[in-house]
Amino acid sequence: MSRQSDVLIIIPAYNEEDAIQQTVDHLREHVEYDYLIVDDGSKDRTAAIIRERGYNGVRLPVNLGIGGAMQTGYRYAARHGYKYAIQLDADGQHDARDIDKLVREIRESGNDMVIGSRFVEKSSYKSSLPRRIGIYYFYMLIRILTGNRIFDPTSGYRIVNSKIIREFATYYPVDYPEVEILVSMARSKYRIKEISVEMKKRQGGVSSINPVRSVYYMLKVTMFSIIRRSF
Strands 192-196, 113-117: parallel, antiparallel or unpaired by DSSP? Predict the structure, then answer.
């Protein structure tokens, strides 16, 4: 893929055969930035669809999880000198029409990360009670550990600048990275801002978070966030 812009959209994908075509076609309809699909060792037809449709992508030989897939994208962005990188989930939850808004905000504000938030302003997004409780828990965790108020700490819809791209290319948490990254960035005095975006329900695939994994997720993220804040 030849570089056409200074923005790279990273699309991590694992077993997203039901949504990947709609996601990428929607993306290309609304923006003209470069994109890279990172197929995280999918076991369904995700890789075949990427190949058949001629999409820009790489395939990992084994499933590394969201952290490994995103770090692959950040390493690509660092190697090719992109100024900005943005995560766009392959399941169709992130609305590509908000990408220009995120790009414009980080260019004009000089922040290191801009988060597309469901909760910083009122939006049409509706989530389940357990998910809202979890989000509020992490909001309070980040506020206690860093003093920062991040209303949508689990949002993966984020754009970062070249400084953060290089850092994430070197280290990125393997599992459930969103909260741990925010704690680490706050400790390093990086500038983070939230802006309101619209998000949709998942268009395909199955969430990896079930009731049992939710407990594991909360305990693991809490422990590693405390560790990251302390060192």
Answer: parallel
Nearest to 179 by CA among 214, 221, 211: 221
pLDDT single digits (tens) 123-160: 667 777 888 888 999 999 999 999 999 999 999 999 99
**Residue 204's pLDDT band (cuts 50, 70, 90):** low
DSSP string, the chain: ----SSEEEEEEESS-TTTHHHHHHHHHHH---EEEEEE-S-SSSHHHHHHHHT--EEE-SS--HHHHHHHHHHHHHHHTT-SEEEE--TTS-B-GGGHHHHHHHHHHH--SEEEEESSSS--S----HHHHHHHHHHHHHHHHHHS---S-TT---EEEEHHHHHHHHH---SSSHHHHHHHHHHHTT--EEEEE--B----SS--S--HHHHHHHHHHHHHHHHHHHH-
Q: Is the pTM of this model over 0.85?
A: yes
- Distance between CA atoms of 152 and 61, rounded to whole angstroms? 32
Q: Are 19 and 90 spatial neighbours (Cβ–Cβ below 8 Å)?
A: yes
